[in-house]
Amino acid sequence: MLALPPLYALARLGDDTADAPAGVIERYLEYLYARDFRQAYRFIASEDQRLKRQDVYVRERGPFHGFTQDVARQLAELIEVRTVTEQSDGSLNRVRVALKAPNGGEIAPLVHNWDETRLNALSMPERKKILATLESLARADKLPVIEGEEEYVLVKEGSQWKVFLNWAAGVQVNFATNLPGDGNGAIAAEPVTKGTVARSGDVFIVGFRVRNLAAHEIRTRIAHRIEPKELAEYLDLVECALLLPVRIRPGEEQIYNSTYLVRGDLPDGIKALNVTYDFKIEG
Length: 283
Hints:
Layout: H1 21-33, H2 37-40, H3 46-49, H4 54-61, H5 66-76, E1 80-89, E2 92-102, H6 104-107, H7 116-120, H8 124-139, E3 145-157, E4 160-163, E5 171-178, E6 187-191, E7 195-198, E8 203-212, E9 218-227, E10 235-240, E11 246-248, E12 253-262, E13 272-282
Parallel strand pairs: 5-13
Antiparallel strand pairs: 1-2, 2-3, 3-4, 5-7, 6-8, 8-12, 9-11, 9-13, 10-12
């Protein structure tokens, strides 16, 4: 397991169970766990894909890269999926599965708390040591795991089952910027993605491209508005790189990310939330 094949799960396409609903769910979850969202997207239903392109889906979720993804892939191989109940209605299949997966939170101290910068900078001997430690714990059945049950809906597309996320039933979250009127055109800013669709419980990342048009360094930050105001509590701003002032050199362009969570108690029937970043120039 130390030499990780990058497309491990694809090697099992010939298995008898690989194309069964539970097998599709297992491979989908392996890619999600490894944060290899480009591959996970392949298992999402076409109806959902029409509402969100692959590049947008990948960017919103923040994929792992390099050795960090190698570690997550090794752990993803240990995921176990067992069908509990299955209800089929023609091209639609509702499957409840029992899941067992490595507990990424408890494993974090062994992998530098999933700090990509630190993990990807490790030397080859250091990388091998981490992978060997995880493999040893797994063989001894001492690797922390998390267990539970989840329900998935799959749809039949030709001869293949795909995971149906029903993004059409989600809320449209729109992003816009409001630039300072007294900034003398010193700053340009726009969302990388002007809108996305999200379901209750979804976590997603949106980036804002900010450019300093002035001939001198500027300091900028944002005030954050959600409308309608009475629905603002249902969209949590988990993390934002622009809430505190940032310095941007003359002519420099940067992308600053914000992470959002759509609350699980979002009322039914809410179709849109509008988020505005009011940029302020300081000093």
